[in-house]
Amino acid sequence: MFFKRFFVLVFLFIFALNAAAQGKNKTIALKQILILIEKQHQVNFNYTENNLGTIKIIPPSKALSLTEKLLYLEKKTNLSFENIDNKFINIFNKNTIQSKIICGYVLSETDHKPVENANIQLTNGKGITTNQMGYFEFKKEKETAFLVSHIGFRSQKITSTDFDNTNCLTIFLASEVTELQEIKTNYFLTSGISKNNNGSFEIKPKKFGILPGLIEPDVLQTMQQIPGINSTDESVASINVRGGTHDQNLFLWNGIRMYQTGHFFGLISAFNPNLAHTISIYKNGSSAFYGESVSSVVSISSNPNTIEKNNFSAGINMINADIYSKFNITKKGFLEIAGRKSITDFVESPTYKEYFNKAFQNTSITDFENNQKIDYSSDKKFSFYDITIKYSQKIGLKDHLIIDLITINDKLKVFQTATINNTIQSEDNTLYQQNYGGNLSWKRNWNTKNTTSINLYSSYYELVANKGLTLENQKLKQENLVLDTGFKVENNHSINSKFTLNNGYQFNEMGVTNLDEVNNPQFYRKIKDVLRTHAIILEGKYTDTISKIYCSTGVRLNYIEKFKKYSIEPRLQFNYGISNHLNVEIVGEYKSQNSQQTIDLQKDYFGIEKRRWILSNDTTIPIQRSKQASISLSYNQNHWLLTVENFYKKVTGITSQSQGFQNQLEFLKINGAYTVIGTEILMQKKINHFLTWLSYTYNDNNYNFPSFQPPVFSNNFEMDHVISWAGMYEKNNLKIALGSKWYSGRPETTPVNTEINASNPVINYNVPNNKHLSSFFQVNFSSTYKWENATGMQYKLGLSILNVLNQKNEINEYYRISTLTNTVEEVKTFALQRTPNVSFRVSF
Fold it and tell me: Which of 61, 238, 443, 537 has the fewest CB within 10 Å, making it most exposed?
């Protein structure tokens, strides 16, 4: 019995060992093996059921590494295993791919997760979508390229060179991180201009339609079509937003503050119109991240910072020529270069002559000419250029580095001579105006809900005038220099789908130098001031598309080191959809500004660019502070748009020297404020390819200088009534625009009488701004046509005519004493006469 039991036990033990050995060598479904490997190594396999089929193999040993297991599986199956960062493993069939199909996996570049329902657009017009694992496949046939796209990601084009292999493609889509802002009005004045729920206007030059008198999307000319934004002297270097002066506007180009905004001393925008990608304009209620302005904010972004195909364009008009080029230098980096230069070195077109006459009328340049009629000769040379460079590079999956550079330059040389009584009298004048800027930006996406951006920026502005008088052996030099440097940190946190929180810090150092030097009689004055400011910013945004509520509140805490002063600036933007067609908007802000432009003498810098930048000293030159509030209603239905906005604006701390007085206040140095109350109305209708609009603006704009009598009187930049109309037709590649603008004349101060007391040669004036100039009226026309040849090269031809009716519009008037007659003489300045312009552009 003992031996029997012993043999039974031995038999059972051997059988168990054999069964265990057979269990280890048992084949199981490949899908089950993959599940086991996923759990052990924390990876995900991407595959289709067709590839796995009914494959059964003996599982690899658990002791093997992930790489060893994948090699084992490749040997045992007719499949390839592609390991992506030890997180995702793509499985595909080599033979099937090579002969019949194109397949691939679409993954997110940020976290390498599959992108489900991504659109695959084929060249034959058909389309497919990816499955939950990001997988797709289609028959090879004659496909040479396809486009991959998905909401929230940047589209990517795949060509035959990318899928000419035996493996499945792995396509990484970059996230398109954009701040969601529901657009309230998508077609404002023309195509390419929209009104956002935060109260800002957004201009997309690449989508720009047409406006009267414009054949290019010039940002500073375009913004003057918006109700409440005007220029009393037709200059882009003197834009008045709700009664403010030009220097009270903050102009930013890729985060760099620009102190020079115009070429030709204000007749042409200094920003290349063929470059800008997005322009945001705030008349009121700007973000708390914007400081150093008491009026509007104009923020220009030159590129969407996305990888696109290489492109090149060049154009010319009757004032300047320009080129633009963008080319990819790496898979994730590109370089963009644009340049523009005047053509006055080669030809003086009719457009140039009209601009020259407008810019230099009633300046020392024309004064010399008018006073020297005997053997008079003149040699005038004027030129300008601007250059911009952008380098964009993505680093890894989360970082983005951008470098922006810009230079703007204007140069005028005038040599004038006259022979009087055998005596040669001459003037040799030069005037330089230039602005250089640079910005280094780094942005990191920590995750889908948190981003950080850091900007290091610098802006240098220089205005230099040299005047030489041969007869008097006198040389005069004037300089105005500005160096503005700083950095900004901005953090964005997406709390949920409705609420975002932003915070940041900004440091700024601004130095201003003013120099006046004369050799005979000897005089030298140089003043340099520096201010350093710190700002802490906090901002929250709430957006609920269901309840139609948008609300953004922010606060900016400023600290000025030199004055040891703090200031708190709250901001508000609120928009509520009362119904599907009716919106109410309430915006308000407190802001401050430590710099301003002043005029010492009207003849400074030859009277052409007589304004110079200065800094506040907190006493005789106070810090400017503003508070604004506005409420508007907007109705939009059946292609009708009606907006009515009422606003209140008050700015304190202004100086009389910053307002350009040419009356009894010209040589006074007093401080005060101005207050504006107004209404802006726009009515717009779109009918098929035709769009027309009519706008009206009313302003009641008054100064208050407590130390002057009377203390309250009309503002120099007051426009009581402004009416604009335009009609545009856009169909296919043809665009035509005709429009007109009428406004009541700006204020002027008249003398009490025209006689002068020889012993005391002073003009006796009436109450400041006691009269208004005659009203201004102008009709403008423009048209463009675009076509394309068989090779894909595009051509664009444009024609514009400013002041079609050739109206003689007076834009300024002042009085001076004539030394010949010892009487008061009247000096008038006029707007442009009829001015044509033609442009031609080619791009590919």
Answer: 61
Q: What is the reported pLDDT for 181?
A: 46
Angle, CA of 828, 830 and 833, to the nearest 5°: 150
> Which of 740, 637, 736 minimizes the C-alpha distance to 695?
740
CA-CA distances (angstroms) from residue 344 to 369, 412, 523? Answer: 21, 11, 36
Q: In the structure, what pLDDT confidence band is assigned to residue 307 with cuts at 50, 70 and 90?
A: low
Averaged pLDDT, 319-346: 92
Nearest residue to 636 via CA among 586, 683, 694, 585: 683
The C-alpha atoms of residue 85 and residue 810 are separated, in whole angstroms, by 71
- Does the pLDDT value for residue 24 go beyond 70? no
pLDDT classification of 537: cutoffs 50, 70, 90: very high
Half-sphere exposure of 11 (CA within 13 A, CB side): 6
Helix (H) or strand (E) segment spanning residue 368: helix 364-371
pLDDT for residue 811: 94
DSSP H or E stretch at residue 782: strand 776-788
Interatomic CA distance for residues 322 and 320, integer angstroms: 7
> Dihedrals φ, ψ of 70, to 5°?
-65, -40
Beta carbons of 69 and 113 less than 8 angstroms apart: no
CB neighbours of residue 262 within 10 Å: 24
Q: What is the value of pTM for the model shown?
A: 0.79
What string of DSSP letters covers 458-527?
A: EEEEEEEEEEEETTTTEEEEEEEEEEEEEEEEEEEEE-SSSEEEEEEEEEEEEEEEEEEEEETTEEEEEE
Task: Quote the crossing angle between the two packed helices 66-76 and 30-41, to the nearest 10°.
Answer: 170
Neighbour count for residue 110 (Cβ, 10 Å): 17
Check: CB of residue 127 under 8 Å from CB of residue 119: yes
Amino acid at 352: Y
pLDDT number for residue 726: 97
Predicted local confidence at residue 368, as pLDDT: 66
Any idea what DSSP says for residue 346?
Answer: T
Question: Is residue 153 very low, low, confident or very high in pLDDT (cuts 50, 70, 90)?
Answer: confident
The answer, yes or no, to whether residue 169 has pLDDT greater than 60, is yes
Which one-letter DSSP state was computed for residue 63? T
Distance between CA 624 and CA 393 in Å, rounded? 40
Question: Which bin fits 470, alpha (ψ -120 to 50), beta or left (φ > 0)?
Answer: alpha
What is the distance between the alpha carbons of residues 552 and 571, in angstroms, rounded to a whole number? 8
Taking residues 322-329, what's their average pLDDT?
92
- Whether 710 contacts 699, CB under 8 Å: no
CA distance 485 to 490: 17
Helix (H) / strand (E) containing 87: none
Residue 8 parent element (H or E): helix 2-24
- The more confident residue out of 300 and 363 is 300
Q: What is the pLDDT of residues 741-760, one digit of tens each?
A: 999 999 999 999 888 887 88
Question: DSSP per residue over 296-344, as a string?
Answer: -EEEEE---------EEEEEE-SSEEEEEEEEEEETTEEEEEEEEEEST
